[in-house]
Amino acid sequence: MPLTGLPAADGVLSMRPALVVKVDNHPGARPQSGLNQADIVFEENVEALTRFALVFHSQGSDPVGPIRSGRTQDIDLLTSLNGVLFVWSGGNAGVTAAVKSSNFINMSASAAGKGSGFFRSDDKKAPHNLYTNTSDIWAVAAGRGGTPPPQFLYSADPSSVNGDDVVGVKLRMDGSMKASWEWDANKRVFARRHDDKLHLDSNGEQVSTENVLVLTVEYKISAANKKSPEAQTTGTGVAWVLQQGKFTQGTWTRASEMDPWTLTDATGEPILLTPGRTFVELIRKEQAVIVASGESLAATAWP
């Protein structure tokens, strides 16, 4: 599958469009649905919080949410997925215009139409309770969108990963949103905590992933809202790649919003990811710290 590097079990599924859902990370939105089913998750700074962009392709999530609004930074971030089905609660006039002029298929709560499956849950309060089902979105959007190309390169032999042994990484993003990833050698994944508590999904399972990418990006002010930061996801910057209990520092490069991400190590060689799910942290400079092998995640100070 293009977004996981895993073999395609179903040729029809491999050709369908990617489906992106903007998911809330406000305390009132947790636990979320879909974080462990998305092929790729981007975490981005918004206004004194973070928000997730869940990219589904190889599998879906029924339900998924809570769904929130988009930002102008989503356009450059997601354009290379080739016509995503963009599921969001809506946005201000500037963001809405940007989405309409992009290659996205607008699947907002108001635009998706009959059969799109949007509903409000009873266990959370608005605006943190809007959900849908990815199966409904794919069904009503049949024939629209394009097949996504790979966004990263994957290894045919992940057991040969190079790098330094690592416990994990700690992040302090905007609004003092604190999260960490810790290597679980038994499950062969990195497991996520929010603050110092397990970050659980709506199924009671800890959020986890095979690959954690910590990408340092510049944030500018969005033209649509002076309060909104806008991640600059083209150009180049520092990349920390965590996989298989290893850490590699390198560089990310992306020539344009139409291009996939290139990850290279200090010698300029490509960094290949472990086939599976990938969680991408779009941080400002100095918003993360590596916890090296032999150190304690709990004892390591937040950045």
TrEMBL record:
InterPro entries: DUF3048_C, DUF3048_N, YerB-like_sf. Residues 3-145, 171-280 form the DUF3048 domain. Pfam families: DUF3048, DUF3048_C. SUPFAM superfamilies: YerB-like (SSF159774). This is Unannotated protein. It comes from freshwater metagenome.
